[in-house]
Each structure stands twice: as structure tokens, then as C-alpha cells.
Specification:
- The chain is mostly beta strands.
- It has a single domain (2-146), classed as Nucleic acid-binding proteins (OB fold (Dihydrolipoamide Acetyltransferase, E2P)), CATH 2.40.50.
- It has helices at 48-62, 66-71, and strands spanning 2-4, 9-27, 35-43, 76-79, 82-89, 95-97, 107-108, 113-125, 128-142, 145-146.
- It is globular and about 75 Å long.
Length: 175
């Protein structure tokens, strides 16, 4: 589903499996203020239309020369039989389930499948030309749910009986 605007933009709805998901809190790993983001894995066989739409925005930005299109920064990367699309936003996205109900208390984890509405926008900056995917609302198709940092809510050790024994210490011969 696409919609052409007067600016060098297109609205695109991507569908794929979430890999790096920061929908409930900003990713601050690369400094403040951070951003909300998701990387969607899409099988290469299903990614052609998305790539054509993004490349048309880039081509409008850089011109029809194939060399310039090849050098432009793209919000996707081909990895084997998959294409990884990266979408981001400074604003927290509204998250919906497939029944059109807002998800406010669920934490979406890697492996969830989802639709992500994006605005593909072309840019020209000193660092180069290309396109970016600005993330809008998200609809979760299959939810893989978590509660925070993996393992944060449970003890990482097995259940053991408490013992007073101490492991024997070998005597060291002074020599």
C-alpha cells in the first residue's frame, strides 16, 4: 500500500518479523535522546515491492544515474535470503493488535510479526543522499511477549538446597 505525496515521500506499510525492537522505550545505546526503532526481517521473495518504492524515493532525490542510486544510503540491507528494513522515530508509536485493540501493557519482543506504517523520506545531507523510514503506528500480527530485560524477572540460578559444606581445599606443600 503506497501513497505519493507532493514532497519526496511515500507512505509504505511494511510487514515482517521484528529483529531489534524498541517500541516501548527509546534505544539510547548511541546516545541521548535515543529513538524508537525496529528492524523488520522480510523474505527476499516478499521484499521486491518495498525495495522498488524506497528506491523510487531515492531516485527522485539523487537522479536517474544508477551509480548514484547504488551509492545512496538505504534503510534496508540484503542479508542472505532476507531483507532487513530499519524504521525509526523520535515519537513513541501507537501499537495495535490484529483485532484493532491498543496494546499498552505488552512488551513486544524479537520474533513478533508486525505491520509498520512508515513514511519513506528522501534526504540530501553533507554525509550523503538517500532515504529513511520514519515509523508510525504498528500493528502486531503474532506477539512474542516479554516483561523487560531478558531474565530480569527470574533468578538465573537453579533451585538448590542450602548446604553448609565447603569445598575441600588442597594443601599446598611449601617447598
Amino acid at each position: 500500500m503506497t501513497n505519493v505525496n507532493l514532497k519526496n515521500e511515500k507512505n509504505i506499510s511494511l510487514y515482517g518479523e521484528g529483529e531489534f525492537i524498541y517500541l516501548h522505550e527509546k534505544d539510547n545505546a548511541f546516545g541521548d535522546p535515543g529513538e524508537y526503532k525496529v528492524t523488520l526481517k522480510v523474505p527476499k521473495a516478499n521484499a521486491g515491492e518495498y525495495i522498488r518504492e524506497i528506491n523510487s524515493v531515492i531516485e527522485k532525490q539523487v537522479g536517474p544515474l544508477k551509480e548514484l542510486l547504488d551509492m545512496a544510503k538505504k534503510p534496508y540491507k540484503v542479508v542472505g535470503d532476507e531483507v532487513h528494513f530499519k524504521a525509526h522515530s523520535q515519537f513513541k508509536p501507537t501499537i495495535w493488535n490484529k483485532d484493532q485493540t491498543k496494546l499498552t501493557d505488552k512488551i513486544v519482543w524479537k520474533g513478533s510479526t508486525m505491520w509498520v506504517n512508515c513514511r519513506c523520506t528522501g534526504y540530501s545531507k553533507a554525509m550523503g543522499q538517500g532515504a529513511t523510514l520514519l515509523m508510525g503506528p504498528v500493528q502486531i500480527d503474532k506477539l512474542v511477549e516479554g516483561t523487560g530485560a531478558p531474565g530480569a524477572d527470574r533468578c538465573p540460578f537453579p533451585n538448590r538446597a542450602v548446604t553448609e559444606s565447603v569445598l575441600p581445599v588442597k594443601e599446598v606443600a611449601n617447598g
